[in-house]
Task: inverse folding
């Protein structure tokens, strides 16, 4: 059965492995570009971070502070380690 409401991301941006500073620059560039409506951002789950996950909460806070709508990706699209971001 096909989901007629299914939305596919226009682009996937993999931030996992980047620092928060690098991630912020990438996000700012993506926003400034203004080309996409639906972006999947891979943030990872922080399983290999010595101090626990930092990037997922950083990206969520960044998006919230810029009033950008997002939600967690479906399990087949990355689950906890990815966000569906809706621009414009």
Result:
């Amino acid at each position: 059965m096909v989901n007629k409401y299914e939305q596919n991301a226009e682009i996937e941006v993999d931030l996992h492995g980047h620092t928060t500073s690098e991630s912020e620059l990438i996000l700012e560039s993506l926003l400034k570009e203004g080309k996409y409506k639906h972006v999947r951002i891979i943030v990872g789950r922080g399983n290999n971070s010595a101090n626990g996950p930092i990037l997922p909460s950083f990206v969520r806070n960044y998006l919230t502070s810029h009033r950008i709508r997002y939600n967690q990706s479906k399990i087949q699209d990355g689950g906890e380690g990815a966000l569906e971001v809706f621009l414009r």
